[in-house]
Design brief:
Blueprint (H helix, E strand, L loop, with lengths): L1 E10 L3 H10 L6 E5 L4 E8 L2 E8 L5 H9 L2 E9 L2 H10 L10 E2 L5 E4 L10 E5 L3
Parallel strand pairs: 1-4, 5-8
Antiparallel strand pairs: 1-5, 2-3, 3-4, 6-7, 7-8
Bound molecules: carboxymethyldethia coenzyme *A (CMX).
The site of carboxymethyldethia coenzyme *A has 20 residues, from helix 2 and strand 5.
Length: 133
């Protein structure tokens, strides 16, 4: 059901500041977009089949702003690509996993996303992601 790691979300205070580091190690941003539903600016950096997703909060109420305040910049989530998001979520619920989203919600790139609670996943915030067709 899970196809591969889609991306790794990295919380940063500034995409432009973080981009300088990624350029030094030979990686380049391919796109930047606003995701108002998540109160974020997001930059994607391709790395082979997967991507690094830089997450810059645009509001203090953003989940990423709270993360940076508590833990500092760093890995905020890991995302899996799935073919059928509704089926994956139904399976997770059946397995008794604590879910932040029981229904898909819109994410960056027009994708549909849903999160599991880190308390239920050994301290990791996992995102399930269905790529836009
Ligand atoms: N990874 C691992 N653990 C995390 C975490 C993260 N990203 N964020 C919070 N936690 C832990 C906290 O450390 C805390 O643990 P303790 O109780 O042991 O201290 C626990 O989870 C609860 O944290 P909290 O601070 O009380 O709760 P928050 O209000 O910060 O909410 C979470 C945490 C995960 C529910 C919230 O961030 C959320 O709903 N996230 C989903 C949305 C999101 O992250 N969007 C950004 C990416 C969007 C995109 O990719 O498009």
């Amino acid at each position: 059901m899970i196809k591969k790691i889609s991306h790794i979300g990295i919380a940063v205070k500034s995409i432009e500041e973080a981009a300088k580091f990624y350029e030094k190690i030979g990686l380049k941003i391919e796109s930047i977009e606003e995701v108002p539903t998540q109160k974020l600016r997001v930059a994607f950096i391709p790395v082979g089949e997967a991507k690094i997703e830089l997450l810059e909060p645009t509001s203090e109420e953003s989940a990423v702003a709270k993360f940076i305040e508590k833990k500092g910049e760093g890995i905020q989530h890991i995302a899996f690509d799935v073919d059928d998001l509704s089926e994956a979520l139904a399976n997770n619920e059946k397995e008794g996993i604590q879910m932040i989203d029981k229904e898909p919600r819109p994410g960056a790139g027009g994708n549909e996303i849903a999160f599991l609670h880190p308390k239920s996943a050994f301290g990791v915030l996992y995102e399930f992601c269905k790529k836009k067709q």
